[in-house]
Design a protein that fits this description.
Helix content is 33%, strand content 17%. The protein is α/β, with parallel strands linked by helices. The strands form 3 sheets. The protein has a 7-stranded mixed sheet, sandwiched between helices. A 4-stranded mixed sheet has the order 1-2-3-13. Helix 2 packs antiparallel against helix 8 and helix 3 packs parallel to helix 8. The two termini are 36 Å apart. The structure holds pyridoxal-5'-phosphate (PLP). Pyridoxal-5'-phosphate binds next to helix 4.
């Protein structure tokens, strides 16, 4: 029995490497058989505590019962019916209405499939609204891998091979007071992650973010806040910007928005969004955006986040991690709710800790722009016992 299991594992892995296009020479390559709550189970019967929530989407863990029920119900009614924006689809309508009810003034939701698509849509909306050519973005920010979103990336290590990308993108440093003067009347939008994620969890200085907001309003540039990772309760409020006394012109959501199903959105006031309906008509369209099954999953996810105490417990759970992590190599822990960047000083150490954790059945990761920092961003449903278990495994790593 065991032998069969191993042979199955070996052959599936080989086929994965051969036929499923790879993004790096070193995929994690766990062969997942099932997933539930905060746990992943592989084909050998080993279980793993998921400390990274699939890099964001699994805010309610894997196959949350309320989300599962909504998905099953929707799959029993209808799936794809027509391209986005034509038919009245109840899961989309209800999700958009519920989002609008908790977002100040942002009452029109354009549904897409992913984070990168949300970025692309927002960039086009900003150009259409302002008629301006430029964008200002932050260094070490990640907004997606499609060409418009990738144009926003600096440094260009991940994008140089794909040049030329969009011209007219200027960069400022997150949290640095020098920079906002770059925002002038040629700038269509300033795009910022409310909390920088792939830089290794960097919360904003309130004064800096507010100054950015003011400068945008003065110059007529739109402020786009990317909460694709920071949104949906991760930082302790449903949306991170709620903690900083500002409101964006356009908000980007994805990842946790679909509760594990593919869903993204850019959200703006109706007066702004309606520009996409004319000059040109159909200037921004998508076939699958807001897929009914994903929208049903998104609505169920939002209901759980709004109707339970999960989000209010986020900070306490994040603090539990912070207080119990005591690995001797820790240099700094940065935190935004249940999202921690644990700096251990080198990539080599991060790799050793990740390998140790995997061996012990705990999944962690590093960050795209910060490879000496360990990523901890578990499902928000994680229990205190699971947090203690995770910390004891990390603390015991030889690095
Ligand atoms: N924006 C942020 C802040 C992200 O973290 C990501 C993905 O990691 C994206 C955008 C892109 O999202 P997606 O991978 O769904 O295209």
């Amino acid at each position: 029995m065991r032998k069969t299991g191993f042979m199955h594992y070996a052959s599936q892995r080989a086929l994965f490497l051969q036929h499923v296009a790879q993004t790096s020479p070193a995929p994690l390559a766990l062969e997942i058989e099932s997933a539930s709550g905060c746990w992943l189970h592989d084909v050998s019967g080993k279980k793993y505590l998921d400390l990274i929530a699939g890099i964001g989407p699994s805010v309610l863990g894997h196959r949350h019962p309320h989300v599962l029920e909504a998905v099953l119900q929707q799959t029993g009614q209808y799936w794809h019916t027509l391209v986005y924006g034509e038919y009245v689809l109840s899961p989309q309508v209800k999700l958009a209405e519920r989002l609008a009810s908790v977002l100040p003034g942002l009452d029109s939701v354009f549904f897409v499939n992913s984070g990168a698509e949300a970025t692309e849509g927002a960039m086009k909306l900003a150009k259409r609204a302002t008629g301006r050519p430029h964008f200002v973005a932050c260094r070490n920010a990640y907004h997606g891998s499609t060409q418009g979103a990738a144009s926003l990336m600096s440094p260009d290590d991940f994008t140089r091979a794909f040049h030329p990308l969009l011209p007219g993108v200027f960069h400022i440093n997150f949290n640095e007071t020098a920079g906002p003067e770059l925002i002038d009347d040629r700038v269509a939008a300033v795009i910022v992650e409310t909390v920088q994620g792939e830089a290794g969890v960097i919360p904003p200085d309130t004064g800096w973010l507010q100054a950015l907001r003011r400068r945008c309003s003065e110059t007529g540039a739109l402020l786009i806040l990317d909460e694709i990772q920071a949104g949906m309760g991760r930082t302790g409020t449903l949306f991170a910007f709620e903690q900083y006394g500002i409101v964006p012109d356009i908000l980007l959501l994805a990842k946790g928005l679909g509760g594990g199903m593919p869903l993204g959105a850019f959200i703006a006031p109706k007066s702004l969004m309606q520009l996409l309906t004319h000059d040109p008509v159909l200037g921004h369209i998508t076939t699958f955006g807001g897929h009914p099954v994903s929208a049903a999953a998104g609505l169920a996810t939002l209901e759980v986040l709004l109707d339970t105490d999960l989000v209010s417990l986020v900070k306490r759970k994040g603090d539990l991690f912070r207080n119990q992590l005591n690995h001797p190599e820790i240099r700094e822990i940065r935190q935004a709710g249940l999202w921690l960047g644990v700096d251990v000083g080198s990539f080599e150490r991060v790799q050793k800790i990740i390998a140790h954790c995997l061996h012990e059945g705990v999944v962690t990761d590093w960050f795209l722009f910060n490879n000496h920092t360990l990523r901890i961003a578990p499902p928000l449903i994680i229990s205190e016992e699971e947090i203690s278990l995770a910390c004891s495994v990390i603390n015991a790593a030889k690095a």
